[in-house]
Amino acid sequence: MKPDAMIVIDVQTALIEAHPYREEAFLGTLQTLLTACRRHGVPVIYIQHEEAGSELEHGTAGWRIAQAVAPAPGEKVFAKRFNSSFRQTGLHEHLQSMGAKRLILCGMQTEYCVDTTVKVAFELGYEVSVPEGGTDTFDNGSFKAEDLLAYYQRRIWHNELATVTPVETLLLAIEG
Q1: Taking the alpha carbons of 142, 53, 13, 35 in that order, is the dihedral positive or negative?
Q2: Which tens digit of pLDDT belongs to each residue from 56-89?
């Protein structure tokens, strides 16, 4: 079924300039999905993390959404201060006003903000699709980024909280 919205989480300049694990492939996946969503009328919503005193401080160059996936005119952007894209942002209310039930969730970082958002979206009753290759992260302590991506996509989310979906399958759904 056609998704009701695509949500892009924290794909911000500072994080991309730090070169996440699958940077080029990740951005390519998002660009492909963004193009399809825009062409076929699927609303795109951006989440932008802000944290005072950090590289993601509101208004700084690092805080801006990465140019490679920047919002088109009129696309909604929600600021957040917590890992959840839903907590104190107005996102849930906005999605409800749209009648949205089926979401594509993608972005950064897999084990933090994307994971929390997937779990909260599930709890709120949304049908969540995470595109294969649609999240990215960095090595984290003794955990390799590659292992984190595989762990969350295959062990935590898939067929439990979300469906991890091949991009080609999502493109067919977006086309309706």
Answers
A1: positive
A2: 999 999 999 999 999 999 999 999 999 999 999 9
